[in-house]
Write a structure and sequence with these properties.
By secondary structure, the chain is α/β, with parallel strands linked by helices. It has one domain: Spore Coat Polysaccharide Biosynthesis Protein SpsA, Chain A (Alpha-Beta Complex). It has five helices and seven strands. The longest helix is centred in the first third of the chain and has 14 residues.
């Protein structure tokens, strides 16, 4: 098994083409990487992904791993966004359980990698992400570099069910959990730090870009 992994997630069949394109874009961008010291991993939820999709994923990913779905109860916030499809995105916190890897680069299934980013595996930080297009004080959770840690997963899981998410999806709760400064939780304990990556690592199409 490789020491590092690129990871994405599939929770519904309509996103299968995105998962396949993402995998091929990673392979293409890393074709000159002599080390090739990473696996391609796709997390799936068995109750919402078909056998046909799983077979297609196994042709391009080194590992296809089933995880339990986690759903948001913040329906009002998702309605405001007009994005009920984001209710299951919090399932991605399972990446912190991949402790067989030293570092993981997580990318959403609608991500197209244009140049090699495998150097991000060497970051010393436990959590890194790029600022969001519309809210630069928040990070976008479509690309994250993390150090898997079961304790962080357990704390994140409990934090989510205790606090919910201000945007209804994973990005809201992750931004509440991680901090770019020395902020603390309500009990006085230190919030894990967010290392800010360049916006160029995760450019989200918008009216401005």
């Amino acid at each position: 098994m490789a020491p590092y992994a690129f990871v994405t997630m599939l929770t519904s069949d309509p996103y299968l083409p995105g998962c396949l394109v993402t995998a091929h874009s990673i392979k293409q961008s890393e074709k000159d990487n002599a080390a090739q010291d990473f696996d391609l991993v796709c997390l799936i939820t068995l109750d919402s992904v078909s056998v046909e999709s799983i077979k297609a994923l196994r042709k391009v990913y080194n590992l296809v791993i089933s995880v339990d779905a986690i759903s948001s109860s913040n329906k009002d916030e998702l309605n405001l966004l007009g994005r009920q499809d984001l209710s299951g995105t919090i399932t991605k916190i399972h990446i912190w359980r991949l402790v067989q890897y030293q570092k993981v680069i997580y990318v959403d299934a609608d991500t197209l990698i244009l140049k090699s980013i495998s150097h991000l595996f060497q970051l010393p930080n436990e959590f890194s992400a790029s600022p969001d297009t519309g809210w630069p004080d928040c990070f976008n959770s479509g690309l994250m570099v993390i150090q898997p840690n079961l304790d962080v997963f357990d704390r994140l899981y409990a934090f989510f069910f205790e606090r919910g998410s201000w945007d209804g999806g994973d990005q809201g709760v992750l931004n509440d959990f991680f901090s770019s400064d020395d902020e603390t939780f309500e009990d006085g304990t230190q919030r894990p730090r967010w290392n800010r990556l360049s916006f160029a690592y995760n450019v989200t199409p918008s009216a401005y870009y």
